[in-house]
Task: inverse folding
């Protein structure tokens, strides 16, 4: 197993599917934020969350999952705790955060002290490289809330 990481950020999305690219955009923000503060943050960006990420999750003290959500009002931001056996609403990707945390527990006998799912409501995930006006308008608030989540992970 890889060495312990203070905070792991797992961003998911497709920049060619409109608002689905918001996770990747926010991951780039995290990279800049972490570089300025020399924080122990590892950022992984994927188009979908897959089983091999369980090892990285098991090696992290904290995990922040970032994605868009089609079940939220466009531009709405939600931050909620993730537990290994928590119920989760249906999503657009193959594995849900709670499933990955469960895999980390089952395969590597370790889970992060804290895991959160950070989502931004999507107006459209149709083909296109532009964010919707609602998601674009939500970015300043999303960055502030993400900074709060990051600060709690590295403090």
Result:
């Amino acid at each position: 197993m890889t060495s312990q990481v203070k905070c792991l950020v797992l961003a998911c999305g497709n920049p060619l599917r409109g608002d689905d690219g918001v996770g990747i955009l926010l991951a780039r923000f995290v990279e800049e934020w972490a570089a300025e503060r020399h924080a122990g943050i590892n950022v992984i960006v994927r188009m979908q969350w897959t089983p091999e990420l369980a090892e990285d999750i098991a090696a992290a003290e904290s995990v922040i999952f970032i994605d868009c959500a089609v079940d939220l009002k466009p531009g709405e931001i939600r931050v909620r705790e993730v537990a290994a056996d928590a119920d989760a609403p249906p999503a657009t990707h193959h594995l849900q955060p709670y499933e990955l945390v469960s895999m980390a527990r089952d395969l590597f006998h370790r889970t992060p002290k804290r895991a959160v799912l950070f989502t931004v409501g999507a107006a459209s995930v149709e083909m296109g490289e532009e964010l919707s006006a609602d998601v674009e308008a939500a970015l300043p608030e999303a960055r502030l809330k993400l900074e709060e989540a990051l600060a709690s992970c590295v403090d």
